[in-house]
Known about the structure:
Blueprint: E1 7-11, H1 16-27, E2 31-36, H2 39-51, E3 56-60, H3 66-80, E4 84-87, H4 103-131, E5 135-139, H5 152-172, E6 178-184, H6 190-193, H7 198-209, H8 220-231, E7 242-245
Parallel strand pairs: 1-2, 1-4, 2-3, 4-5, 5-6, 6-7
Amino acid sequence: MRLEDKTVVITGGGSGIGRETARRCAESGATVVVADIDLSAAEETVAELRDGGATTDAYELDVRDPDGVRSVVDATAEEYGLDVMVNNAGIAHDYADMEEVPLDVRDRVVDINVNGVWNGCRAAIPHLKAQESGAIVNTASLAGLIGSPGSSAYSLSKGAVVNFTRTIAAELGPHGVRANAVCPGIVETPLVTGDREESEWEQLRDRMAENYPLGRLGRPEDVANAIRFLGSEEAAWITGHTLTVDGGFSCA
Ligand code: NAD
C-alpha cells in the first residue's frame, strides 16, 4: 500500500485502532498527524513514528470542539496538505438495558462518536473538495449495523456514522472525494479490555472468541489495514462503502 506524499490526520490516534492506523500509514510513507484528547498518548504515538523516520505531529484535540478540529485540520493542510481524514476517536459505555442508560452518558457518547465525526468531516471537506481528491474514513462499528444488546447509546451513535458516511460519499463523489466507514467487531484495545485484570480479560476474550468463525477477537492491525486501504488510491473506486471487519461474526 503506497501513501508516499500523502498526509493523513487520525483522531483518537493515541491508542488502539488509531495508533495502529498511524503506524501502518507511516509505514506506507504517509505524513501522519495524530490528534487525541490525551496529548501524552498522541505524543507517544508520534515519538514512535518519528523514530521510524516518519514526518509526524501530535495535537491535543477534543473532537467535540468544532473550532479545535478545524484548527488542527487547517494547520495540517497548510503545512503538509491533506489527503486522508480518519475520524476514529470514539468511546463506549457500560453495558445496561436501554432504559437504564443515563441521559448524560447517551449525550456524551453521541457527542464524541457522532458530532466528533461530523466535526472532522466538516473541517476536512473544504480542503479535499478544493483539491478534488482525497478520502475520509470513519470508524463506525458492527454495533452500527446489527443489534447490540446493552450498548444502545453506542449503537445509536455508530448507526448514525454508517449512514452519514453514505450521505457524504454521495455529496463528495462529484468532487473527486471518497468517504467510507469501517465496522469492526470486538477488537482488543483499551476501549474493550478496560480496567479488567489480565486473567479476567483472557477468560472473557476466549468466551467471546467462540462466536467468531475465525476463532479470535480482532487485533488493532486488522482494522488499521482496512482503514489504510480505504484511504489509499488502491480504493479509488470505492466510496459510500461500509467495510465490516469482524472475523465473520456477522455471517455466523
Ligand atoms: P481506544 O480507547 O483504544 O482509543 C480511542 C482513542 O480515542 C483514545 O486514544 C482516546 O483518548 C481518544 N478519544 C476519546 N475521546 C476523544 C475525544 N473526545 N477527542 C479526541 N480523542 C478522543 O479505543 P479503540 O478500540 O481503538 O477505538 C477506536 C474507534 O474504534 C472508536 O471509534 C471505537 O468506537 C471504534 N470501535 C472499536 C471497537 C473495539 O472493539 N475496540 C469495535 C468497533 C468500533
